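To close the section, here is one more complete example, presented without commentary so you can practise reading it yourself. The ligand is magnesium ion.
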Amino acid sequence: MSGAPGPILEVRDLHTQFSTLDGVVRAVDGVSFDVARGETLGIVGESGCGKSVTAMSILRLIPRETGRIASGSIKFEGEELTSLSEEEMKRLRGHRISMIFQEPMTSLNPVLTVGTQIAENVVRHLGVSWKQGRERAFEMLDLVRIADSRRRLDEYPHQLSGGMRQRVMIAMALSCDPQVLIADEPTTALDVTIQAQILDLMIELKEKTGTAIVLITHDLGVVAETTERVVVMYAGRKVEQAPVEALFEEPLHPYTRGLMRAIPRLDVEADAAGTRPRLQEIPGLVPILTQPIVGCAFAPRCSFATDRCRNERPPLVDAGAGHLVACWEVDRVRRAA
Amino acid sequence: MTDAPVLQVDGLVKHFPINGGLLQRQVGAVKAVDGVTFSIRRGETLGLVGESGCGKSTIGKVVLKLIEPTAGRIVLAGEDVTALKPGAMWTHRRRIQTIFQDPYSSMNPRLPSGTIVGEPLENFGIARGAARDDQVAQLFRRVGLRPEAMRKYAHEFSGGQRQRLGIAKALSVNPDVIVADEPVSALDVSVQAQVLNLLIDLQEEYGLAYLFISHDLAVMRHISHRIAVMYLGRIVELTDKRTLFTQPLHPYTEALLSAATAPDPKRRRQRKKIVQGDVPSPAKPPPGCHFHTRCLYATAECRVTAPPLLEVAPGHHVACLRRPVGGDPGPLSIPG
Ligand SMILES: Nc1ncnc2c1ncn2[C@@H]1O[C@H](COP(=O)(O)OP(=O)(O)OP(=O)(O)O)[C@@H](O)[C@H]1O
Ligand SMILES: Nc1ncnc2c1ncn2[C@@H]1O[C@H](COP(=O)(O)OP(=O)(O)O)[C@@H](O)[C@H]1O
Ligand code: SF4
Ligand code: SF4
Ligand SMILES: [Mg+2]
Ligand SMILES: [Mg+2]
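Output:
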């Protein structure tokens, strides 16, 4: 299964749009990336930058009435997903590609026990018996370390805490040994101690099963502690991509730099006097996606911007060692320390 | 910062009844706040941190007198306001204001933003008509909004701008204390920095005291002078922020700190002491020390005796049986 060469998932020049009363929302505006087998890829950016729409596009869950993949290609194991029928997608989803979301209640069925839901997924995709499906459900609840798993099989989602529901979602998502798990803000709704438990669990299971993870989050701390490679998005575009160490060691895009300086940090020594140094603000607001953006989407907020930035979209260039950045002024940015 | 507290809270208790059975009689109580004591000085930020449901917002609502305490005492600028009935609350309300996580939900969508911000000025009879408009325009400028925006409606503002509106409104009556309940939690980081900087500037300019509620430790450390860590309705540790982050003494504080993520890949895998299990329900808190079900260091006694909050070192309050007054601040041993 994993011996095959090449990335497991290849997204190329993806454009996903919605028609709204205000015009066409260019939610994803030309995004490309690969996911290697067994890796953890982070996608990070502020709300509205297109992270969830990217995930929904891969899973082909964009609401048909208003949205569509306007162009681009998504290949899973070399197979083009954008042209698959809904039937064919259903066979993939929850089996070879699976997903977990921020709010597990929206993806769990409130009237079925968690055991039944996991078993159903296994029976449907792997064609095993109900008994084997139940057994698999039990194994999975054990795997995600739900205490008293036999009894929990017969409980309904509302009987579980938020953290336990997220464990059930993970159990269900991994029940058919997927090659890719897409996790969209999986810990955002959880308390910090529970978030730490869930992140640890995901990484541990990834190491055990070899499932590649696409971890979508707005939280730079979560990205830093759990992923291997990171894609930074801004206004529907990929502005930077790098191995996680390189990204945090030397962010190259002015937006990424701005983000890292804007967050209060726990790992930097607070000064003894208890003074509160000013956080660096990123001035202005994210652009409105209903208007086509010429040039660099970050230009109105960027202190490095030139006329070229306002008129020509910067291409992604390799700044060395797999560190890609879409910025015309990267040399100046680098020198600015 | 002067020494007299502008807000003093003693032994605050808030229980919400749980009704059940055929007659909907009270069958229990959610002990949302269970004996909390703290004070805040002029110009000071006291941070309240803890996981969901530990009682942070309830404390905020009680000190604002939006809900009545079950027991305890609230002293605002030297005046005991615990027993004040709603009618007598005017002066109280003027001294203590609030900023919410989602200011939008508390704003009338049909009123222009200038009218919303100017409401307290009218209500308290501070200014009307043109004088009010002048003051509102000044407030808009002070929080970084253009005065022309007074004509716009709440939905025409971004999240960060709405938070500025909320701040302007709270500021309008020149309060002593502002209760800020997760004021930046719904904001993107780039906007969060703008609002945190503004809150700090205003505090320094007007000597405001903040009761700042957040679940985000990094935000908390940035804005607070002192921090109270809560668990299931009780304060388990209270000290200045530097001590809290460099020498936490309560096992729950230690757990929170080690669970927090930081934007530094070198820190990964350093999180070794992750507490297991869920936060118990405040309707059925564990006996003894509430934290014993998840505490690595719990002993038999912890299951029966509730630890009082003690000042174990000057200014450092801890509620843990294994952290006595003047005790060794070193790491605790895990019972065999
Ligand atoms: N009006 C109410 N009636 C009954 N129970 C309540 C009421 N308000 C709060 N509670 C309960 O009191 C406890 C404390 O709630 P509170 O809102 O103060 O928590 P919090 O610390 O602010 O949590 P969060 O971080 O989720 O905002 C919770 O168990 C909550 O369900
Ligand atoms: N169903 C939809 N209809 C219209 N616009 C949408 C829809 N879903 C998402 N969008 C828009 O697409 C953009 C990207 O959204 P999303 O991917 O959800 O952002 P995030 O990065 O926060 O996950 C936003 O401007 C959002 O408002
Ligand atoms: S391309 Fe120009 S505007 Fe865009 S980030 Fe780089 S310097 Fe700034
Ligand atoms: S009193 Fe006991 S259970 Fe509670 S925090 Fe201290 S050691 Fe842990
Ligand atoms: Mg999203
Ligand atoms: Mg709250």
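Once you have examined the tokens, check your reading against these statements. The pocket of magnesium ion (ligand 5) is lined by residues A 51-52, 184-185 (CB under 6 Å). Chain A touches chain B through 46 residues (CB under 8 Å).
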